[in-house]
């Protein structure tokens, strides 16, 4: 019994093909949990798309990417000479070798560039510019010098979510000078097209993850197996915490915290409505009435108690027809934090 991601392969791949057609030169991002599909599945899809480069998040992801993908691999986290040296000293192994000719490293400082070139004089690099995202990068005035010092292959820019990035990217293009490829994140196809019209001598390549792999939400569904069902009388106590339950049925389903069930990132609560929702959900949690992401009998029952590591206990209200053991029920999950037991591409 398992938590399984079911994928309509033809529909999912059609969405990928459409994204590539709309944004020529797109660089697929394959990082973390592989957007719920697993990185190995996405390496194979990137090969199918015949792209020449993918981007990964960290150096720890490099070995799998080099083994699973046939083209170049851009590492989006910056190379840090001190971190590589410290890990090597602690483990006598270190992070993956920087010698592979298909690797493209991200540089933000001269000291790290010097450390990388000392380890591999032929290392391929791009220079990250410090955008309004404010995460890491070199100020625009220094980017050109770093590119020249490392014989860099271009500039990479990580932008905030939203739109309106053309002017900010343009400032970097004008500050850096020369003809450079630019790798940009969180831009739309229209923004990239506008940049190409404004700077026809430059190459702009969008790095895309979510809008490539998760473009068509109707193409995939997470499903959970029903592991057990039993009637509940009012006041029956269940679970580790022995909380009393209302009358109905206890439904035990596959999928727990190890799969990412009910694991959420902090909400931005940017609007009055989202703040009100956050307050309401907090009040429900305080009285142990948290709605689960599982849909059973047309309803989303509450958790009988917080999810376990690999299964969840649901309190199905009285009057709702219970499922049978072995049935599957859909689960509404954020795939960027999901770790299913299996991925079935049909």
TrEMBL record:
Residue ranges occupied by any Alanine racemase N-terminal domain in the UniProt entry: 11-152
Alphabetized Pfam families for the sequence: Ala_racemase_N
Gene3D superfamilies to which the protein is assigned, alphabetical: Alanine racemase
Domain of life: Bacteria
Cross-referenced SUPFAM superfamilies: PLP-binding barrel
Name recorded for this polypeptide: Alanine racemase domain protein
Organism, as annotated: Intrasporangium calvum (strain ATCC 23552 / DSM 43043 / JCM 3097 / NBRC 12989 / NCIMB 10167 / NRRL B-3866 / 7 KIP)
């Amino acid at each position: 019994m398992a938590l399984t991601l079911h994928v309509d392969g033809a529909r999912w791949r059609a969405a990928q093909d459409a994204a590539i057609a709309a944004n020529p030169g797109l660089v697929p991002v394959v990082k973390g949990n592989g957007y719920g599909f697993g990185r190995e599945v996405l390496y194979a899809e990137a090969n199918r798309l015949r792209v020449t480069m993918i981007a990964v998040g960290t150096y720890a992801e490099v070995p799998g990417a080099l083994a699973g993908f046939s083209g170049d691999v851009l590492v989006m986290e910056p190379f840090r000479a001190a971190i590589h040296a410290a890990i090597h000293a602690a483990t006598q192994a270190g992070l993956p070798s920087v010698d592979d000719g298909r690797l493209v490293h991200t540089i933000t400082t001269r000291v790290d560039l010097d450390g990388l070139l000392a380890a591999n004089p032929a290392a391929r690099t791009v220079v990250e510019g410090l955008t309004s995202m404010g995460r890491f990068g070199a100020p625009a005035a220094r980017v050109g010098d770093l590119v020249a010092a490392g014989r860099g292959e271009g500039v990479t820019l990580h932008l905030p979510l939203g739109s309106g990035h053309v002017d900010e990217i343009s400032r970097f293009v004008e500050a850096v000078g020369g003809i450079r490829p630019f790798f940009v994140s969180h831009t739309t196809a229209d923004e990239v097209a506008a940049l190409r019209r404004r700077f026809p001598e430059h190459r702009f390549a969008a790095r895309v993850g979510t809008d490539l792999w998760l473009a068509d939400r109707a193409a995939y569904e997470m499903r959970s197996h029903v592991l057990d069902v039993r009637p509940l009388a009012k006041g029956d106590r269940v679970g580790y915490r022995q909380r009393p339950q209302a009358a109905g049925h206890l439904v035990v389903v596959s999928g727990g915290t190890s799969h990412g069930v009910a694991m959420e990132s902090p909400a931005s609560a940017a609007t009055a409505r989202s703040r009100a929702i956050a307050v309401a959900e907090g009040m429900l949690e305080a009285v142990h009435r948290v709605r689960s992401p599982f849909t059973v009998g047309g309803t989303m029952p509450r958790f009988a108690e917080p999810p376990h590591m690999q299964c969840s206990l649901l309190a199905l209200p009285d009057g709702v027809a219970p499922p049978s053991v072995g049935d599957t029920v859909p689960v509404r999950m954020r795939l960027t934090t999901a770790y299913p037991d299996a991925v079935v591409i049909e």
